[in-house]
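Thread: nicotinamide-adenine-dinucleotide complex, take 2
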Amino acid sequence: MLKNKVAVITGSTSGIGEGCARALAKEGCHLVINGFGDASEIEALRASFEADYGITCLYSPADMTKPDEIAEMFEMTVRELGGVDILINNAGIQYVSPIAEFPTEKWDAIIAINLSSAFHTMHHAIPIMTKRGWGRIINTASAHALVASPNKSAYVAAKHGIAGLTKTAALEVARDNITVNAICPGYVWTPLVEKQIPDTARTRGMTEEEVINDVMLASAATKKFTSIEQVAALALFLCGEAAENITGSLQVIDGGWTAQ
Ligand code: NAD
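Output below.
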């Protein structure tokens, strides 16, 4: 069912986005991958998607803080691949600090990348999907779309915002065969999580091991990290026929964190 569909996945040079790209490529979707990183590593990833799955995979270097570059990403997608069927808004960054010391530029960057970029991508994707009569939009939110943690003001605000944006977009396109949902993972073992361990250790005066056990997995009833593959499998399900009537939902995959 997903063979020859076109998927645009922001922040897919690493972590969850790369996992979602791989899961869709396995189903025969053509891809536009996006994100930062070493140019030769990104090219190797792009080429491996084409070689391993027999699909077309393009790379867009669009910076999600720049609406013009987001527009160019969609111009390229339409020009080279004919349209877009699946959009996964996944690019995201984190910064950990109390509000009193939180740098303004970090606040602005997190709101731009983790929240506003999803508005800009949907602004371009929805008219294309409406014309094609089918679409799937998935926003990678977080358990932090539902609950807060100290020292993550911008991230929690952006993720709560993406929950509202998901619901609003879902209602606007509900009759157009386009679904819009958010996935809300607890901690997934990715480079983003790895990077925040030293920061959290510093701001809370803990060892890195204490951060993993007493902060990150403290709230997970299962005491397990979610895997990238588990998030990707949920995204794939949301793209499938069985999920046709699931829209405007927040799909929690957090080891029981927000059940408490
Ligand atoms: P990651 O750091 O592995 O990947 C982030 C991706 O976003 C990378 O490809 C990076 O290059 C890209 N990116 C960053 N800034 C960008 C920009 N300005 N423009 C374009 N791309 C940019 O992180 P991840 O853990 O895979 O996170 C992916 C998403 O999942 C994020 O939205 C994050 O908030 C969310 N999330 C992660 C976890 C977790 O525990 N890892 C939990 C809940 C939600």
